[in-house]
Design brief:
Largest sheet: 2 strands, antiparallel
Mean pLDDT: 94
Number of strands: 4
CATH class of the largest domain: Mainly Alpha
CATH superfamily of the largest domain: Fumarase/aspartase (Central domain)
Strand order of the largest sheet: 1-2
Shape: elongated
CATH topology of the largest domain: Fumarase C, Chain A, domain 2
Number of helices: 19
Strand content: under 5%
Helix content: 55-70%
């Protein structure tokens, strides 16, 4: 079909060049945003007297018809059009005639695509935020149910000190809460309308850019027309924020994979979120967690690709910028899919609470508390550290936990130990004595849970 820009050219574009240049195969996904922006544009043109009210009505009715027909499947977006803007405009002209040719008055495809991408991104940020909130809701439920589910806390993948499952889930709650705040920051910073910037230098038509911005829910118009058509910062920010979301998911996935192993047996993943082996009938593989871990690199790659694309581009618009769409679309789809599946997985996952507590006991996670017991009975900390080190060696040699030792065995290593050592190093005592805000003690956790409930209710 003839190009919207064909008047300057005497030769038809080579088919290979045309296909290489075209974006319809991927930018068709924001047909709704393109139509929404066009409706706001013609509404403003009519307000300014650039179009008649009759022309406005004709164009808007035509655009609404195109949107309906695309949504119900009677109008297909095909690759005979160069991009989504060409598709909408060509179909509009076919339907309403010459009035449709006035749709593009006072704008360029440069500010049009900048608007479409902002509208699309804004919509997707709202969806991503909703998925993050759903993840937080599931995590909060786990926290409320597990303030007395004892497990080992780790450093260097070595058992370190006893915590609770509520405390462990709370760490991820904080991560995903920060992810939501990043999404809100990006939304606020990007929420200025580029429509009316033209190709790069505005237009001689008396546009009311503030009105267009208001119609589309923006905080106002962008203040530099060159930056308006060449800004992709908000996409780089979104890719960076999604990379951080994926990093958090990947860390969580790694722990689920470890916890699912035969050596740990902390969790039982629901059958719906795991698969078997084609040859080994005993296997139950944590495929969803592994795929989330793997897809993290895909989102990182999109971030690095767009940063690399943008690094050498002079002002203002250049065709390189068309490369933003496939990268961002894929990264958004990947992140949304991973959030939804991971949330479903942890919602249905069963925790082996007895196994977790036994792992904490046999990992000497209460060794620090044994040392604190000695300090509280007058032993210098450095001496107490050495005494407990000997206790641990003694237990390792006999394959027992500290609280499996008899009082005589304790006293043989240090006469300071008395019967109350057992209470001092029980998992319950070790955890519940830690009640500074942010610690795993039940009292501290319940305060935090109330704060997190208020946060989710206010958002």
């Amino acid at each position: 079909m003839a190009q919207l820009w064909g008047g300057r050219f005497t030769k038809e574009t080579d088919k290979l060049v045309y296909n290489f240049n075209a974006s319809i195969s991927f930018d068709k996904r924001f047909y709704e945003q393109d139509i929404r922006g066009s409706i706001a544009h013609v509404t403003m043109l009519a307000k300014q007297g650039i179009l008649t009210d009759e022309e406005k009505t004709q164009i808007i009715d035509g655009l609404e018809g195109i949107r309906r027909d695309v949504e119900n499947g009677t109008l297909e977006i095909t690759d005979e059009y160069e991009d989504i803007h060409s598709f909408v405009e060509a179909n509009l002209i076919d339907r309403i005639g010459d009035a449709g040719k006035k749709l593009h008055t006072g704008r360029s495809r440069n500010d049009q695509v900048a608007l479409d991408m902002k509208l699309y991104t804004r919509d997707e940020i709202i969806e991503l935020d909703g998925l993050l909130k759903e993840m937080l809701t599931v995590l909060l439920k786990l926290m409320k149910e597990n303030t007395e589910t004892y497990m080992p806390g780790f450093t260097h993948l070595q058992k370190a000190q006893p915590i609770t499952l509520a405390h462990h889930m709370g760490a991820y709650f904080e991560m995903f809460k920060r992810d939501r705040s990043r999404m809100k920051d990006i939304y606020k910073r990007m929420n200025l309308c580029p429509l009316g910037a033209g190709a790069l230098a505005g237009t001689t038509y008396p546009l009311d850019r503030e009105y267009t911005a208001e119609l589309l829910g923006f905080d106002g118009p962008t203040l530099n027309s060159m930056d308006s058509v060449s800004d992709r910062d908000y996409l780089i920010e979104l890719l960076s924020a999604m990379s951080t979301v994926m990093m958090h998911l990947s860390r969580f996935a790694e722990e689920v994979i470890i916890w699912n192993s035969n050596e740990y047996k902390f969790v039982e993943i629901d059958d719906a979120y795991s698969t078997g082996s084609s040859i080994m009938p005993q296997k139950k593989n944590p495929d969803i967690a592994e795929l989330v871990r793997g897809k993290t690199g895909r989102v990182y790659g999109a971030l690095m690709s767009l940063l690399t694309t943008m690094k050498g581009i002079p002002l203002a618009y250049n065709k390189d910028m068309q490369e933003d769409k496939e990268l961002v679309f894929d990264a958004i789809d990947t992140t949304k899919g991973c959030l939804a599946l991971f949330t479903g997985m942890i919602r249905t996952m069963q925790f082996n609470k007895e196994r977790m507590e036994e792992s904490a006991r046999h990992g000497f996670t209460n060794a620090t508390d044994a040392a604190d017991y000695l300090v509280n009975h007058g032993v210098p900390f450095r001496d107490a550290h050495g005494i407990v080190g000997r206790l641990v060696l003694y237990c390792i040699d006999r394959k027992i936990a500290l609280d499996d030792m008899s009082l005589e065995e304790f006293k043989a290593i240090s006469p300071v130990f008395e019967e109350d050592i057992y209470d001092a190093i029980s998992m319950k005592t070790c955890v519940e004595m830690r009640n500074t805000i942010g610690a795993p003690g039940k009292e501290a956790m319940e305060k935090v849970i109330k704060e997190e409930e208020a946060y989710l209710a206010s958002e």
